[in-house]
Write a structure and sequence with these properties.
Blueprint: E1 3-4, E2 7-11, E3 15-16, E4 19-22, E5 38-45, E6 52-58, E7 61-66, E8 71-74, E9 77-78, E10 84-93, E11 99-110
Length: 116
């Protein structure tokens, strides 16, 4: 089962500064080595099966910053989505073909006045 992490609310039209994650083994809390791992995330509106509004992956929006210690980040981008709740998960594909989803959660976009 993936762990749940809900990203802080964000205003529509503002730059999302990015966020850093560290993936740890659930049995002994040691970092999971991300060497050679492909990471992919989709953001979907209203539900886990809703319309995909953004997809990021390794080398295109996700950067592995310290592979041996399980550290990666979502790079900064402008969120120009309509106000509402968006669902995401983070899927890892290891070099042996194993695919694991370690994190999932939501991101709420708040309507601002300027981008109304």
């Amino acid at each position: 089962m993936p762990k749940t992490y809900n990203i802080e609310n964000h205003c529509k039209g503002d730059t999302f500064a990015g966020i850093q994650f560290t993936i740890l083994n659930t049995t002994d809390s040691t970092p999971i080595d991300l060497t050679g791992v492909a990471i992919k995330t989709q953001f979907r509106k209203h539900s886990k099966t809703g319309k995909v509004v953004k997809e990021i992956e390794t080398e295109n929006g996700i950067t592995i910053t310290n592979a041996v210690n399980g550290v990666f980040k979502f790079n900064a981008f402008v969120i120009d989505w309509s106000a509402g709740v968006y669902y995401y998960d983070i899927e890892f594909t290891f070099s042996d073909g194993t695919i694991v989803t370690y994190l999932e959660g939501t991101l709420t976009i708040i309507q601002d006045v300027t981008n109304g």
